[in-house]
Specification:
There is one protein chain. It is built from 6 helices and 8 strands, in the order ααβββααβαββαββ. By secondary structure, the protein is an alpha+beta fold. A hairpin with a 2-residue loop joins strand 1 and strand 2. Strands 1, 2, 3, 4, 5, 6, 7 and 8 form an 8-stranded antiparallel sheet that branches. Helix 1 packs antiparallel against helix 4 and helix 4 packs antiparallel against helix 6. The chain has one domain: Electron Transport, Fmn-binding Protein, Chain A (Pnp Oxidase, Chain A, Roll). 34% of the residues lie in helices and 29% in strands.
Length: 203
Amino acid sequence: MSKNIPDEFIEFIFRERRRLLEKAVAGKARREDFLIGFLRHTPAVVSYGPAGLNASIKGIGFVVKDEYLKETIDFLMSQRDKVLRKPREAMRILLEYFYVEEKIDFTKLSTIELARRHTWTNLNVNSEATLLFYVPPSKTYEVRCKATIHMDDEYWKLANLVHDLYHVYPYGRERDWRKTPVYVFHIKEIYDNNPAKMGEKIY
């Protein structure tokens, strides 16, 4: 556990997502598994600043602990050609070498910025953000964070690389990472907004 991040949140955000990948690699994941399961990956990112009060759905990923950053980046970089036309192999590699609970720093979450519009404008001025997760019928967490912006460092490389191993390289495409900065969300507070908890602070 990372700095007492609640186990129930790690179960929600990471272990259940890992189990979905395990099913997908085994060829046992159904379409509805992805439709529901991916909601753990796509919270609303709420920000406030010059662009006004804004909420944007973004794909959220994980950050490995600092001591694993370089070796993880180096290994995943070496796997890019091996996943060409092989989406399931890409998932297997990520499952085996990235989705490893002992390596993950659960006090941080990350995303790449594809649009550079409202969220980008706001977070460049005001680093406060809230991530709102919801999985029907009643799983919902409000995660209050401080966002840092990264370009051309290890956090930036890792987030872009993991994204592209899943979404880009298996389909024979390339992307210019210079166009996609990365946000790292440093978790400050977590609230359980399940109707039974009514916004109880759990971290």
